[in-house]
UniProtKB/TrEMBL annotation:
Belongs to the binding-protein-dependent transport system permease family. Residues 94-291 form the ABC transmembrane type-1 domain. It is a multi-pass membrane protein. This is Peptide/nickel transport system permease protein.
């Protein structure tokens, strides 16, 4: 296990290096931030002076070497728009994004697991058909469309819930439902397929032959063995929720990293974008490693060399 963890950490380091390369050169291709920061009536001499002060007049490879040295100590430079350390600004908004993503994930799991189990145990019945229809609707609706629809119905017309912002627990409901919709249907479909495969195996028939109750057979024996592919989906979906929160946070004016990155892109705030991309990559790599290690806890037969 120790060798496997060390090997995966080495792979993670290579991924993060690739992310730093990609984010650095991609942001440099989006335009000149100096033109946005300089006053409209600024002369060419004033623009060049500002570019020199910010260090954008240096060769690109020199800028990258300075950037990479800063990455090693989590120093991405100061925000061009706010004048504060970029990573600090991202860290300040990360709790809002994490809380929303985990709320959406818990909601998705809480809804998907019971529906997936019921659909598998009542295959071909009315509940299975309703579950399939729900999965189809959840995967067909675009996130931005669902978010706007929820705002119009529950935030504007009925006025039951806040239409935007982050205030109390009620402000989590609409954005969490929006984020959880696609994740819920993905988990439900995977769990249903996995449960159908497990319910037909010999050890399930043996458990029933011993006289165990159906609830015990389904939830204690079948569900536990059907969770391995679900764990994979949950891990991948958590990463998708973090990166996909950009649209949801923008729609609901959520003060998280996603909305902040969108603003930084429009402002050509390179250092904020690079800090946010690196932090997202770091979190996703950690989630994937934790998902792999969780396999051995759910199934003792799995051992990593």
């Amino acid at each position: 296990m120790g060798r496997y963890v060390v090997k995966r950490l080495g792979h993670a380091a290579l991924v993060l290096v690739g992310v730093t390369l990609f984010s650095f050169f991609l942001t440099r291709m989006t335009g000149d931030p100096v033109r946005l920061m300089a006053p409209l009536d600024a002369t060419e001499e004033e623009v060049e002076l500002l570019r020199t002060q910010l260090g954008f007049n240096r060769p690109l490879h020199v800028q990258f070497l300075d950037y990479f040295r800063g990455v090693l100590v989590l120093d991405f430079g100061d925000s061009l728009r706010h004048g504060e350390p970029a990573m600090l600004l991202v860290f300040e908004r990360m709790p809002a994004t994490l809380s929303l993503s985990f709320t959406a994930l818990l909601l998705a799991v809480a809804v998907a697991v019971p529906i997936g189990v019921v659909s598998a145990t009542r295959r071909g019945g009315l509940l299975d058909a309703l579950g399939t229809l729900l999965a189809l609707l959840g995967q067909s609706m675009p996130v931005y469309w669902l978010g706007i629809l929820l705002i119009i119905v529950f935030g504007v017309q009925l006025r039951w819930l806040p239409a935007g912002g982050r205030t109390d627990w009620t402000s989590y409901i609409l954005p969490a439902v929006t984020l959880a919709a696609y994740t819920c249907t993905s988990i439900m479909r995977i769990l249903r397929s996995s449960m159908l495969g497990v319910l037909g195996q010999d050890f399930i028939r043996t458990a029933r032959a011993k006289g165990l109750g159906e609830r015990t057979v389904v939830y204690r024996h079948a569900l536990r063995n059907a969770l391995l592919p679900v764990v994979t989906v949950v891990g991948l979906q958590l990463g998708s929720l973090l990166s996909g929160s950009v649209i949801t946070e923008t729609i609901f004016a959520w003060p998280g990293v996603g909305r902040f990155v969108v603003q930084a892109i429009f402002n050509r705030d390179f250092f904020v974008v690079q800090a946010a991309v690196f932090l997202f990559a770091l979190v996703i790599v950690a989630i994937n490693l934790a998902t792999d290690l969780l396999y051995s806890l759910l199934d003792p037969r799995i051992r990593y060399a």
